[in-house]
Amino acid sequence: MKELALKYGCNPNQKPSRIYMADGSELPIRVLSGRPGYINFLDAFNGWQLVRELKQATGLPAATSFKHVSPAGAAVGLPLDETLAKIYWVDDCGGLSPLACAYARARGADRMSSFGDFIALSDVCDRDTAMLIKREVSDGVIAPGYTDEALELLGQKKKGNYNVIQIDENYRPDPIERKQVYGVTFEQGRQELAIDDELISNFVTEKKEIPDSAAMDLKIALITLKYTQSNSVCYVKGGQAIGIGAGQQSRVHCTRLAGQKADNWFLRQCPKVLNLPFSGHITRAERDNAIDVYIGAEYMDVLADGAWQKVFTEKPEVFTEAEKRAWLDQMKGVTLGSDAFFPFSDNIERAHKSGVEYIAQPGGSVRDEDVIAACNKYGIAMAFTGIRLFHH
């Protein structure tokens, strides 16, 4: 197949639309079911690159949950503890394969943003992973292959019209990439930078030693940023992104947005949230929405009389700001990556509030010394990579 006609482009009025190989060669994908659209393929190809690099960097199966050309979550296949399994709604699944654990983490870290995602998997999709995908609201999946059991499960989704794409894992694109904007062709070398231990070896803070787990998390953060719309910041803990701030014009707004998502991830693990008395008739998405409102500033939207009865069997107590802060103060060992330098130390102040202890960023700001001093104040280890990771 050398080209594939699409229903339309980014919007229904943008026709005609297709994907094809400019050199006339075969497309590196096969559509096994469904009819993926223009944005689906943008998410699929960006997501595939991300998980492929995560697998190369860590040696572990990887998954990502993409929405609108940025990852909502990304993770490697480390086992889930009891609490994570519960907040990701997979505690009823028993033991999961490493790939399924990776997807549960990628999908579960920010369930609000991952609703209706496009999934990318580094490895052949197995039964466990397909089982998790089947129960979530999702647009499609791309992987290097699928077991027969996985295809059978995915075939039951959307009346057999769920988008399933198989990609040739040996495909390598041309080193020069091009795109058109307003009829003008842009050309650049592909971003082939390897995210490895050497890239995060230049520690400029007083604290210079970091555990292997933090080094892995820093690599996950930087690889995730390579495929996130800039400006972007990524918080990672335990082999998964827990907060991604994408497409913000201000660096500190990236840090705040991603930090709030990381905070929400941790707040969901508080017993007060884990034990919310949900009604048995509500959907998974309705539970996610209720939790998001309950732990946020607009909690009365779900606790007001006439509202809580639709979600809970009894009215929960308010999760006070003091209680939230006390719980968040227990979050430690978080890593943070930034796709460009921090121009002010306010980014460090905000990161510290979310338990950040390890940072990787390019460096090069005229206020680098202020940023380093802020890190030293909180005992944060920070590496300068010297490399920017903008993605547009």
Describe this structure as you would to a colleague.
By secondary structure, this protein is α/β, with parallel strands linked by helices. The chain folds into three domains: 3-172, AICAR transformylase, duplication domain (Cytidine Deaminase, domain 2), CATH 3.40.140.20; 194-267 and 328-384, Cytidine Deaminase, domain 2 (3-Layer(aba) Sandwich); 275-318, Helix Hairpins (Orthogonal Bundle). Helix content is 34%, strand content 20%. It is built from 14 helices and 15 strands. Strands 3-8-7-6-4-5 form a six-stranded mixed β-sheet. Strand 14 (356-361), helix 14 and strand 15 (381-384) form a beta-alpha-beta unit. Helix 1 packs antiparallel against helix 7 (212-226) and helix 8 (251-267) packs parallel to helix 13. The longest helix is centred in the first third of the chain and has 21 residues, at 38-58. The chain is globular, with a radius of gyration of 21 Å. The protein starts with a strand and ends in an 8-residue tail after the last strand. 43% of the residues are buried.
Report how far apart the termini are. Answer: 28 Å
Given the C-alpha coordinates, what overall shape results? globular
Number of domains: 3
Strand content: 15-25%
Spatial strand arrangement across the major sheet:
3-8-7-6-4-5
Structural class: alpha/beta
- The number of distinct β-strands equals 15
Instruction: Look up the CATH topology of the largest domain.
Output: Cytidine Deaminase, domain 2
Order of helices and strands: EEEHEEHHHEHEHEEEHEEHHHHHEHEHE
Task: Catalogue the unreliable spans.
Answer: none
